[in-house]
Give the backbone structure.
Amino acid sequence: MRKILVFGGSFDPPHLGHCALLLSAAKTLRPDGILIIPAYRAPLKNPAGASAAHRLKMIHSGLLPSLPASWRRITRLDLSEINGKRRVYTVETLRRLKRLHPKAELHFAVGSDSAADFHRWRDPESLKTLSRWWAANRPGHFLAARDLTFFKRLRHAMPDISSTEIRSRLALGDGARKYLAPAVHAFIKRHGLYGENLPDRLKTQIKSRRFKHSLAVARLAEQLARRWGLDPAKARLAGLLHDCGRSIPAPDMAGYAQRRRLAVPFLAAVSRRQPLLCHAYVSADIARRRFGVSDPAILSAISKHTLGGRSMSALDRLIYTADAASTDRNYPEAKKIRALAFQDIDAAFRACVRQKLCHALSHDAWIHPLTLQLWNSLQK
Ligand SMILES: [Fe+2]
Ligand SMILES: [Fe+2]
């Protein structure tokens, strides 16, 4: 029976992990045909991603050339999901392929991280009957025994990388090149995709000491996100941009917040007493307008990193903690709080709030009501 290897994904961007997975599946299966099916991505869902046209160009210049010529000849790009301009579930695609190739046996290859999420895909029971399933182990994402009952394992080693991680690295200018085909990396650079050079842009807008602090917060935020199961890419981006509005001089800060009608709590009192306390809200506004961040979770974490808030998400608390305990902080307890953050993030967050209060009191400074509320809400 004719075997068709199906390889779907967003390819945003295509990277060496995709190449390794495709090669491994092709070597193992020796298929008669290979179908690469890039997913359509709603334009508003992830504005940090690349357009369909750009993703296709990168597949042509990076993924296809990684295949030996004999397999390239039997490979087709299936654009039905992209041309449909809507989110298409894999089960729909496989049903369509079954209709088109009723005599063929379909084989679908995924990384072990996707395989582990299989139960959350649309209609997993039908998926199991429509295709045979292959999974490759990514380091750190080993398939549990229960997943292996219908997934067959591809034996070749995979690099430990995902598109999310690569987008985050590109945004921070932090070593993504080694995970990409040279042509893909060059394409990304040429078209300025994924916020590439974002640190360079930030560097021109804030003072050098603030820039170093932002990098330190981004690094710590990413490490903490990995430790506590949050999205490392979001944490890095929030950490990098958390102070992007901090360079506005104090006398202008409250004016900016008023002009932009930012929801700074107790704005009148803040502008009279400590206008710099607006900077978190101003930074979130600038992150959205100048740096194109639209993810509400990231914008919320940026806006709450100084005063906190009445309700704070895990990411909000993590960025608050990473800012107060980053490696460039030199108050005596900073190192201890940093270590604590890897043991008990809630205790570290509480220690940061306490530290801010003590600092304000020791300087006889006005304390924002939200900070007091936050402290009180943390009392058992
Ligand atoms: Fe700040
Ligand atoms: Fe900061």
